[in-house]
Design brief:
The complex is a heterodimer.
Chain A (H helix, E strand, L loop, with lengths): L1 H5 L8 H27 L2 H21 L3 H18 L8 H26 L4 H8 L9 H28 L1 H6 L4 H23 L4 H15 L3 H25 L12 H31 L23
Helix pairs in contact in A: 2-7, 2-9, 2-10, 2-11, 3-4, 3-5, 3-6, 3-9, 3-10, 4-9, 7-9, 9-10, 10-11, 10-12, 11-12
Chain B lengths: L6 H24 L2 H21 L3 H19 L5 H22 L5 H8 L9 H28 L1 H6 L4 H23 L1 H18 L3 H26 L3 H37 L1
The chains are: A mainly alpha, B mainly alpha.
Chain lengths: 315, 275
C-alpha cells in the first residue's frame, strides 16, 4: 500500500498531529495573503526583522510565564510602530533604520534569554522560541492562533484595495485620497500579527520563510494579486502539511532516532518549491523566445516580482 | 573584574571591530543591511554542522557564510534581491535547526554562538582571526574605488565599465569573510549590528568616505571595548551591550545631523534677511 509507505501508522489518530495540521493551515493561509503584499512592497527585511524581534516577545513571555504567542503579538505591534517612527516607509535609508531597531531589540532578547536560563533554568526556552515546533502547540494557543488568523484574514480583506493601490503606485493612491502613511502602518501591524503566527509554527528566526517563500513563488506563477494570494495560501498549506508528515515519518530516521524538526522540512520544501518554479519560468521564457525565433528583438516584459524599485517619488 | 579575560580576547575583538567598521561602511552605502544580517545567521548553521562533524568551528562558519553569499548573489540576478536573501537565510537556519536536533550539545554553546561570548575566544583563534582580518582589509583596499562607485551610483559605474555584478559578488564574499571571523565573538544575531550601527552613525556625522570609515572604525572599536568590559562586569551577554550602544550611537548621530541641518537652514535664512 502506497499510503502506508508514505504515512506512518497512527498519523491521523494522533492529537498533536491533528492540532498541528489545523494550526499549520491557518498560519499558512494568513502568511500567504500578507506575504503577497510584503513581496510586492519590497518589505522582506521588515518582515524578517519583525519575525526575529518576536524572540524578544517570546523570551519576555517566558520570563513572565505566559504563552509565547502573546509576547510575539505584543512585540510585533510595538515594533511595527517604532519602525514606522524611524522611517521604515521611506525607501532611502530604511534598511539601516530597520537594522538598527532590529539590533537593539535582539540585544534585549539576548538579555532576556540569559535571564530565562539563569533565573528560571529553562534552557529549552532558547531553542523553542528560535526554532519552534508545531507539535508542541497546545492549550489556549490553539484557539488563539485560529482567532488571530481569522482577524488577520479579515484585515487583509478590509485593506485589500487601498493597500494594493498604495503598494503599486503611491502617488496615485495619495491623489485618490488614500491615507498612504496610515495604510502603511496598518500593514506593518498586520505583518507583525502574521509573523507572530508563523513564529508559533516554525519559530522566530524561521518565521519569514512562510511569509516570503510561498508568496514569492506564487508571484512568479501569476501576476494577479488576488489569485497570487490563493496560490500562496495553497503552497503554504501544502509545504506545512508535507513538513508535518515528513517530520512524523522521520521518527525512526538516523542519526538521532528522535525525529527531524518540522521547521526544517517546512523551510526546505519552501526553498525547493521556489527553486523549481524559478527554473521553470526561466526555461519557459527561454523556450517561448526560441520558438518565436526573434532573438534580435527581445521583448522585455517586466516581471512584477523582479521589479526592484517602485516608482515612488514620495520620500 | 577582568580576571577571566586574556589579552587574546581584546586582540580578537579589536580586529573584529576594525574589519566590521570598514566593511560596514560599504554595507550602509549599498543599503545591504539585510545581507549583513543574513550572512552571519547562515554562518551560525555552519557552526552547528561543524560541531556535529567534529571539525573546526571557523571552517563550518566560513563554508556556510560563503554558500549563503553565493546563493544570494546568483539567485538575486533573476529574482528580487530581498526575497532571495530572506529565502537563503531561512534555508540555512533550517539546516541549522536540523543539525542542532542531531547533536547532543544544547543550550549554552548555541546560545553563545547566537548572542556572543567573550570568554569563548581561545588563544589559538587569534592567528586565524588576524589573518582573515588582514585579507578583508586588503580586499577593501584593492576594491575601494569600484566598490565605492558602484555603491554610490550603479549606473555610472556600469557606464565606466565596472562589472557591477562581479563587484556585488565580491562584496558578498567580503561580508561572508567578516561574518566568519566575528561570529564567535559577537554572535550571529548581533554581528550585523556592529556592521550597521557604528557606520550609520559615522555617516551622519561626516560625509567624506575616508573620514566616515575612520570614524566608523573608531566607533566600532569603542563599542566592542565598552561591551566587553560591561559584559565582564555584569555577566550579561555581550550582544545586549553591542546592540544598545550601536543604537545609541545611531540615535546621537541622527539627532546631530538633524540639528546641524536646522542650524544651517537658520543661518541661511538669517543671511537672506541681512541682504
Amino acid at each position: 500500500m502506497l499510503s502506508s509507505i508514505l504515512v506512518e501508522p497512527g498519523f491521523f489518530g494522533s492529537q498533536p498531529v491533528r492540532t498541528a495540521l489545523v494550526v499549520g493551515a491557518v498560519v499558512a493561509l494568513v502568511s500567504g495573503c500578507v506575504g503577497v503584499f510584503t513581496v510586492i512592497r519590497g518589505q522582506s527585511f521588515a518582515g524578517e526583522a519583525l519575525s526575529d524581534m518576536g524572540t524578544l516577545g517570546g523570551s519576555g513571555a517566558y520570563l513572565v510565564g505566559v504563552s509565547p504567542l502573546w509576547g510575539y503579538v505584543g512585540v510585533g505591534m510595538v515594533v511595527a510602530g517604532t519602525m514606522e517612527l524611524f522611517g521604515v516607509q521611506r525607501r532611502r535609508g530604511r534598511d539601516v533604520a530597520t537594522g538598527i531597531v532590529l539590533g537593539a531589540m535582539l540585544g534585549l532578547s539576548a538579555l532576556f534569554l540569559y535571564w530565562d536560563t539563569v533565573d528560571h533554568s529553562t534552557t529549552g526556552a532558547t531553542i523553542t522560541i528560535l526554532f519552534g515546533s508545531l507539535f508542541t502547540v497546545s492549550g489556549v494557543t490553539v484557539p488563539a492562533t485560529i482567532v488571530l488568523g481569522i482577524v488577520g484574514l479579515g484585515a487583509v480583506a478590509l485593506l485589500y484595495r487601498p493597500l494594493l493601490l498604495t503598494s503599486l503606485n503611491t502617488d496615485l493612491a495619495a491623489a485618490r485620497g488614500i491615507p498612504v502613511r496610515r495604510v502603511g502602518l496598518a500593514f506593518l501591524v498586520l505583518m507583525g500579527v502574521s509573523v507572530s503566527l508563523s513564529s508559533v509554527a516554525v519559530g522566530t528566526i524561521l518565521g519569514t520563510a512562510l511569509l516570503i517563500g510561498p508568496a514569492a513563488t506564487a508571484l512568479r506563477l501569476t501576476r494577479r494579486p488576488g489569485l497570487a494570494m490563493l496560490v500562496a495560501g495553497g503552497i503554504g498549506i501544502a509545504v506545512t502539511w508535507l513538513g508535518i508528515l515528513l517530520s512524523y515519518d522521520s521518527y525512526y530516521w538516523p542519526p538521532a532516532k528522535k525525529g527531524w524538526p518540522v521547521s526544517f522540512f517546512v523551510v526546505a520544501a519552501i526553498f525547493l518549491f521556489y527553486l523549481a518554479v524559478d527554473a521553470w519560468t526561466w526555461w519557459r521564457s527561454r523556450s517561448i523566445r526560441a520558438s518565436r525565433g526573434d532573438r534580435a528583438v527581445r521583448v522585455h516584459r517586466p516581471d512584477p516580482e523582479a521589479r526592484d524599485e517602485v516608482p515612488c517619488s514620495r520620500v | 573584574m577582568f580576571s577571566g579575560l586574556t589579552v587574546s580576547t581584546w586582540e580578537v575583538a579589536t580586529v573584529v571591530a576594525v574589519v566590521a567598521g570598514v566593511v560596514g561602511f560599504f554595507v550602509v552605502m549599498r543599503g545591504s543591511s539585510f545581507v549583513a544580517h543574513a550572512v552571519p545567521q547562515s554562518a551560525f548553521a555552519g557552526a552547528a554542522g561543524a560541531s556535529l562533524l567534529g571539525v573546526s568551528t571557523v571552517l563550518g562558519l566560513g563554508v556556510f557564510a560563503l554558500l549563503a553569499a553565493l546563493a544570494i548573489g546568483w539567485l538575486g540576478r533573476r529574482g528580487r534581491h530581498d526575497v532571495v536573501t530572506a529565502l537563503s537565510v531561512v534555508l540555512m537556519l533550517g539546516l541549522g535547526s536540523l543539525f542542532l536536533s542531531w547533536s547532543t550539545e544544547y543550550g549554552p554553546q548555541i546560545y553563545s554562538l547566537l548572542f556572543g561570548e567573550v570568554l569563548g575566544v581561545s588563544a589559538n583563534e587569534v592567528g586565524v582571526t588576524a589573518l582573515l582580518g588582514v585579507v578583508s582589509i586588503a580586499a577593501v583596499l584593492v576594491l575601494y574605488r569600484p566598490l565605492l562607485l558602484s555603491s554610490v551610483s550603479p549606473d555610472i559605474a556600469e557606464a565606466r565599465g565596472v562589472r557591477t555584478f562581479r563587484i556585488e559578488l565580491l562584496f558578498l564574499v567580503l561580508v561572508a569573510l567578516t561574518a566568519t571571523m566575528s561570529v564567535p565573538v559577537v554572535g550571529a544575531l548581533l554581528m550585523f549590528t556592529l556592521m550597521v550601527g557604528p557606520p550609520a552613525a559615522a555617516r551622519s556625522f561626516v560625509s567624506r568616505p575616508i573620514a566616515a570609515i575612520v570614524l566608523s572604525v573608531a566607533l566600532a572599536v569603542g563599542t566592542v571595548w565598552i561591551s566587553i568590559a560591561a559584559s565582564c562586569g555584569t555577566n550579561w551577554p555581550i550582544g545586549f551591550f553591542v546592540g544598545a550602544i550601536s543604537a545609541g550611537a545611531y540615535l546621537v548621530g541622527r539627532t546631530w545631523s538633524w540639528w546641524s541641518v536646522r542650524r544651517t537652514a537658520a543661518r541661511m535664512t538669517g543671511r537672506e534677511r541681512q541682504f
